[in-house]
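User: Round two. Same drill as before: sequence, then structure, for each protein.

Assistant: Same drill it is. First protein:
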Amino acid sequence: MKFIIRAVDRFCAKHPRFGIPNLMLYIIIGNAVVYLFSMMDRTGLFLDYLYFIPSRIVAGEVWRLITFMFIPKGGNILFVALFLYFYYFIGSTLERTWGSGKFTIYYFAGVMLNIIYGFLVWIITGLPSITIGLDAHYINLSMFFAFATIYPETRVLLFFFIPIKIKWLALLNGLYFLYTFVVARFPLNFMPLIAILNYLIFCGEDLARTLQPMKYRMSRQNMSFRSKAKKAEKQSISSAYKRKCAVCGRTDEDYPNLDFRYCSRCEGYHCFCEDHINNHEHFKE
């Protein structure tokens, strides 16, 4: 999976303007509009024009490749509003963390995986198209896993008044995925697995790093710090200065009486002056 995410990162670096800014806002607005119109339509014809139905797509109704993304999970208006709020909060945070390009690729990769799965089910099993029932429900829920991998200790207000860490919400989300896989009928029971596959492609490496035993992680970090420190010291011999603050840029040549130290909590090898050794944002590689 590493080569895929590396290729995505390189592509986004080379094309900084790629992506749909505020993508999750458009997704949420689309879900809200579809929900309101579906509540007013007692015949069910409105949603019938939006469902992912392979036979009709092949017949020319190609808009269904996109519109199924905007069909919200059924429920009362408070339930739908709560989930749309969380979708927007999680999605917009991931976009700020990854950038619009990477988040756009992440979301539409999940959509594409669902489309491929829907067509495969239709072609292989010959099931009636309407029973496939694809929507973006599990794609949206998979964002909880991505958010919890990056910010596991972040607290959110469940039902707007119960503080809970996002990692525990992700655990509940995982139990819901497992329940769906066990209880739901084919082909709906495999949709959570499709969403998890997309999550693992983009966050599998971060998840593996998070699940490493703390002692092993600290050992590797200390070894890396010591090796990079020795390398930097050797490189600094030929320089006009040996130490330079990574925040203010002051060097030991310009300020010989200034105390310089190295931060072992930063990833990599970074030197700081006495004014910034305890007052800086830790580097993450």
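Second protein:
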Amino acid sequence: MLVITDNATLRAQYDSLRANDIIVGRLRLRESEESLLLDLSQRGVHLLPSALSQLASRSKALQAVIFGPFMLPLTRAIHTHHDLIRAIGDYRKNDVTAVVTKLDRRNAGLGVHLWRSVEEVFTHASLGSIPYPFVLQPFVPECSDIRAIFLGSYSEAYQRHNPHNFRNNLHHGGKSKACRLSTEQKELCRRVMARGQFPYGHLDLLVTENGKSYLGEINLRGGIRGATITPADYQERVANIHRELLESLQKK
């Protein structure tokens, strides 16, 4: 059983990897190389974190597919003009006007855009102004934004708010304050992590005026600005989770 903990060794040993070999840590892959995760999984190589969690962390469009039941109703991945045409009908049937789009591989709120209607999105996408794929979802004007961090037995959450921008990211000037997750919110996070095989993660929750919580997105890693955990403690806890997962596999 070979254990690889760095990408340089992975590249050098890639062709000789066998079933039950183990790769610890996220793989540094270019977008065109992500299918290597499938190849490794099919060959029986163990990935820590899982291949699914690594792929989902890289693609918001994939998240909209596999975590759709946990997101705002009508949230969907848009891959073609035909997807948008169908969305126009569905959103009109549900009296949804303003919508938000999220570009697939943008973080820190840089790929989030607000539109007056799906028709407006369709016009810009048809003219090439919006690259496919992207995520489409209804705009909820009065809502709260919560970032939750789960690292094994450790967890914390804080609310993010920006009175001057619907993007609550701290990167865009939002402020944060610690908060406590409800039992329902913790269960939502656990179910999402289980579905995506996330051993740890950063989850963004959208909370509506009536108190209903939905998943915004999830990532294996994210900024900890606004959190109480220190960078050193964060890295140590992630390393401990990796070590525990590795030891569990080696005992089998």
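The chain has a mean pLDDT of 92.

User: Perfect.
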